[in-house]
Design goal:
The chain is α+β, with helices and mostly antiparallel strands and 267 residues long. The chain has 2 domains: 2-21 and 238-266; 36-231, Immunoglobulin-like. It is built from 2 helices and 14 strands, in the order αββββββββββββββα. The chain has helices spanning 2-32, 238-266; strands spanning 36-41, 62-65, 67-68, 83-90, 94-102, 111-117, 139-145, 148-154, 161-162, 169-175, 178-186, 202-210, 222-223, 227-231. Helix 1 packs antiparallel against helix 2. The two termini are 17 Å apart.
């Protein structure tokens, strides 16, 4: 009876380890779902030039709400695009981010942008513009319109400038009332004006959409607030090492305990 109880305790211990492990995975996923663009690590090239590639299905899309830009003239009181979906892939060197949003009418002035803060100062998502208790900081903006993509910097409205070193590529394809726009760049560019992305670290990210057929341009646009972006790091297999150590320790403990019990029974 004692041995049976020991084995039951051992199995219970293993079950506890398994539950704790999978719970930690589930907790991480729940934390990122809905607020984080999680860039999936893949092998091979990222689909930078094909916004409708099936490779994008390897990454889960996250939908973010958009509102009209109402703080500065000219304003957009009601957003024409109310949400945007974002997903991302990277291969350890190259990064691609896909934006997807509805637009019933294709227009040559349709545009989209992604924004990252680049400095230590807190930056408002609107070009790093000072606002309320946010003093304003530098931002890196990836802007796409038609066949043009620009790598930009700003620190408030009226300060938008194009970089001398253009590192960002972009391609948009409209199909069946839907825009898909793919942005691509190296994770690390070496340019101090660029956001530098390190796998495993969280970055803030924001989005902007212009619907050209509605006359939107400049500050007349649909915008998001700050959300988060994280590029998946290479797999960490240390959890399996710790699990094996724990299991081995449990096995040794059981063997020693069983031997002691048997000796007492013989006596």
């Amino acid at each position: 009876m004692i041995i049976v109880r020991i084995k039951f305790g051992y199995l219970l211990f293993l079950a506890f380890l398994a539950v704790a492990f999978f719970y930690s995975l589930g907790s991480a996923g729940a934390q990122e779902g809905g607020v984080v663009v999680f860039s999936k690590l893949i092998e091979g090239p990222v689909p930078a030039d094909d916004p409708w590639s099936a490779l994008w299905n390897q990454s889960q899309a996250v939908e973010f709400p958009l509102s009209g830009q109402v703080h500065w003239e000219p304003r957009l009181l009601l957003p024409t695009v109310t949400s945007v979906k974002a997903r991302s892939l990277h291969n350890g060197a190259d990064l691609a981010i896909l934006l997807e949003y509805p637009d019933p009418e294709q227009d040559s002035t349709d545009a989209a942008a992604i924004e990252f803060p680049t400095g230590e100062e807190k930056a408002h998502f609107a070009h790093g513009q000072p606002m309320l208790q946010v003093e304003g900081g530098p931002v890196n903006i990836w802007f796409w319109k038609g066949d043009q993509t620009q790598d930009l910097n700003a620190k408030g409205f009226g300060t938008l400038t194009a970089q001398a070193q253009q590192d960002v590529r972009g391609k948009g394809v409209w199909k069946d009332g839907m825009w898909r726009v793919a942005f691509s760049r190296k994770l690390q560019t070496g340019d101090q004006k660029d956001v530098q992305i390190t796998a495993g670290e969280f970055k803030q990210i924001a989005f902007a959409i212009w619907e050209g057929s509605k006359g939107e341009q400049g500050s007349r646009k649909s915008v998001s607030s700050w959300w988060y972006f994280r590029a998946e790091p290479p797999p960490d297999h240390s959890i399996w090492v710790y699990t094996l150590i724990a299991v081995a320790g449990a096995v040794v403990f059981e063997i020693v305990l069983v031997r002691r019990v048997r000796k007492k029974v013989k006596v």
